[in-house]
Amino acid sequence: MPRRPAQLRGKAGGFYVRDLDIRSVRGGLYQSGRLVRVGIFLPTRQAAQIRAAMDIHDQVCVADSWETLETLVRLEPLSVVVFNPASDGTMDATKACKLIRNYASIPFVAYVPVDATFVRGIVRMASEGLQDVVVYRFDDSPSPFHKTLERVSSVPHVGTLVGMLAPWFGRLPPSLVDVLVDDLREPHKYASAEDIAAAADVTLSGLYRSFRSARLNSPKSFVVGARVFRGCAYLRDAGFSIGDVARKLGYTQPRIFARHIECVLGGCPSTLRHSLDDAEAVSRLVTWLGSSTRSAGRLMKHHIVHVICLVSVADWMGGLTQLLALS
């Protein structure tokens, strides 16, 4: 019998899912199929229907209020959000429109009954960027519903980036390319080069040999580039702070994310979120991912400068302490 998507209840009143359905294969990690991670705010029966549409490797995060739903959107790496604008008992298109407008990089799908009272709200939400509408008990059977979720959850510009990386990807094993593309789609799943190697079922040294043979930047730099690529889309949304984006991508500190943005794209997040367009961002990412020397050197140079600054501050503080002691 298929296993239901895992759920873990959080203290904030909603459900938070953090574990993946990953199975061991010859010592490595294997994930069956593409993960769809859905945030939902729905009445009980509709929530049960969407669970029936999920594959065993999919995950569901359930919100019990508009406030909890926004928390999920801000902090959890969701593929798509499915909601009923009357989930709390009152039709509220205004709150739905605000979420859709503030988090434009996240696809929102309205799941509503056949009722004339919802029509005007759907029109308003569509003008704000609503991705799709699923009608309860009409076009919500499991297979079509899941296909809708997969379609709307595709990450913008992944295809463009992968196409531009084709000269390098063409020299890699197809199974490794699949993992790298998945990293571009869901970078929160890959914290290190070791994670890439495990998912591709290769040794870490074998992974580095493959990258050198393809004349790609290092696997570690690919992990950094994938997070920056996804972070670019989030930063354009008015609702996300830099700290929110860092947490969504799996960073422990926002300053590390900011440093990676500067290394890969050449500017600080607060500036680039308003000035860097999609085409230029993809072009700079290709330069970073496809360079076997310059990008890695830039990351090392930035790290060295950061260390020197810390040492200088420490020396200055030590001198100040001695001066105060003498006085």
| Order of strands, widest sheet | 4-3-5-6-7
| CATH-assigned fold name of the largest domain | Arc Repressor Mutant, subunit A
Number of domains: 2
Mean pLDDT: 83
Proportion of residues in helical segments: 55-70%
Summed up, the helix count is: 16
Give the overall shape, derived from the CA principal axes.
Answer: globular
- The beta-strand count equals 7
- Radius of gyration from CA coordinates: 22 Å
Strand count, sense and barrel status of the largest sheet are:
5 strands, parallel
Per CATH, the class of the largest domain reads Mainly Alpha
Give a concise summary.
This protein has about 325 residues and is α/β, with parallel strands linked by helices.
Question: Would you kindly provide a written description of the structure presented here, covering whatever features stand out?
Answer:
The protein has 327 residues and is an alpha/beta fold. The chain has two domains: 22-152, Rossmann fold (3-Layer(aba) Sandwich); 158-304, Arc Repressor Mutant, subunit A (Orthogonal Bundle). It is built from 16 helices and seven strands. The strands form two sheets. A five-stranded parallel beta sheet has the order 4-3-5-6-7, sandwiched between helices. It has a two-stranded antiparallel ribbon with strand order 1-2. Strand 3 (37-41), helix 1 (44-53) and strand 4 form a beta-alpha-beta unit. Helix 13 crosses helix 16. It is globular, with a radius of gyration of 22 Å.
